[in-house]
Design a protein that fits this description.
Protein name: IS110 family transposase
Number of domains: 1
Structural class: mainly alpha
Length: 42
């Protein structure tokens, strides 16, 4: 079996989101959605 377990993957995603929110609060900036071109959407 390869990769992370379900719990490990969930913790990984939660940590990433916490880091993003912390950075937004620290620098007082709003989140901006990334621009995606129509070609990239599958």
């Amino acid at each position: 079996k390869e990769g992370k377990t379900k719990g490990q993957a969930l913790v990984c995603i939660m940590r990433r989101l916490v880091n993003i929110v912390y950075g937004m609060m620290k620098y007082k900036i709003a989140y901006e959605l990334p621009v995606v071109e129509e070609k990239e959407v599958v």
